[in-house]
Amino acid sequence: MLTKIALSLFSGILVFFTSEGFFSYIAGGITLALIFLVFLSEKWIDLKYRYPVFAGFIGGGFGIFFASLLMKNGGILENYAFFKSSPFFIFVLLTLFGFYFGFLGTLRISSSFSLFAAPEKEKKESGAQVKILDTSSIIDGRIIDVAATGFVEGMILIPKFVLNELQQVADSTDPVKRSRGRKGLNELSRLKQNKALVVKIFEKTYSEIREVDHKLIEMCKDQDGVLITTDYNLNKIASLEGIKVLNVNELANSLKPIVMTNEEISIVILKEGKDPNQGIGYLDDGTMVVVDGGRSFLGKEIVVTVTSVLQTSAGRMIFTHPKEK
């Protein structure tokens, strides 16, 4: 944005210095075309090349500016016969040369001294991709426990716009939302207190993008990062965009203990099932256990034998019956 503003101001100066006769229209047309190219390039040029190219455009603009000074009445070329014979051709030629050398010169200076450099990606720890947390994964909190065990490698980035969203949720008048927001902030405090983890706040807010999900996707592309989420829809959209996603729910499902047919487990019958004489209990990881003939054991802990395991999109269900004595 600052580059575009500077270029626009410079175009006004350029037109002012060449505002004599027909050349003023040419100079104005060239500078307007230059501004159009800059605005267009911001949309289509990759971020890592965008800032050096902008720098080149500014250098090219100064090249046009000095070429215009040579052509202006009272300038160096005014008294030369070849200029008087074909001023338009010489003006266009000098303008092109000025832009070309100004563009290349500024581009090389920018590359050599890191002027107008694009925002650098966060450095990777031990070669691992940076991990980017979304709001849902922070509120969920399980990824923080996983990271504390050392299973999550590399730097963990907390986007500033995610922090802002958490704060808004924590300040909500809805008690449920407020509770979730405060839980998320508490989980972040717990994450920051773990000295074994490298956690940083990513300051760029992507103010030109409105939706937080779209900001996360753009940030993952810029940082070549891995998105950590529990949001099913965000997971699918990010995957379609070619972003690597770690879904905490999928991780939890994959880590659930494997239960085999005819295996015996202990379970507390917590409630009645839908079918007659059925009882329902849960394993420590939340897996539902349906006990055929378990209604009479309501509120008691019994040993059951596994008859089958059903895997659904919502998780697993284990079907059992009381162990025969």
Strand ordering within the main sheet: 6-10-11-9-8-7
Strand portion: 15-25%
Which architecture of the largest domain per CATH? 3-Layer(aba) Sandwich
**Low-pLDDT residue intervals, each spanning 5 or more residues:** 1-6, 15-19, 113-120
Any overview of this molecule?
This protein has 325 residues and is an alpha/beta fold. It has 3 domains: 1-110, no CATH class; 131-254, Rossmann fold; 259-322, Nucleic acid-binding proteins (OB fold (Dihydrolipoamide Acetyltransferase, E2P)), CATH 2.40.50. The chain has helices spanning 2-17, 22-44, 47-71, 81-85, 87-113, 135-140, 142-148, 160-170, 175-193, 212-223, 232-240, 248-255; strands at residues 131-133, 156-159, 199-202, 226-229, 245-247, 264-268, 271-272, 278-282, 288-292, 301-312, 315-322. The chain is elongated, with a radius of gyration of 33 Å.
Summarize the structure.
The chain has 325 residues and is α/β, with parallel strands linked by helices. The protein is built from 12 helices and 11 strands.
Features:
17% strand, alpha/beta, 325 residues, Rossmann fold, single chain, OB fold (Dihydrolipoamide Acetyltransferase, E2P), 12 helices, 5-stranded parallel beta sheet, 52% helix, 11 strands, 6-stranded mixed beta sheet, elongated
Chain-wise SSE layout:
Blueprint: H1 2-17, H2 22-44, H3 47-71, H4 81-85, H5 87-113, E1 131-133, H6 135-140, H7 142-148, E2 156-159, H8 160-170, H9 175-193, E3 199-202, H10 212-223, E4 226-229, H11 232-240, E5 245-247, H12 248-255, E6 264-268, E7 271-272, E8 278-282, E9 288-292, E10 301-312, E11 315-322
Parallel strand pairs: 1-2, 1-4, 2-3, 4-5, 9-11
Antiparallel strand pairs: 6-10, 7-8, 8-9, 10-11
Helix pairs in contact: 1-2, 1-3, 2-3, 3-5, 8-9
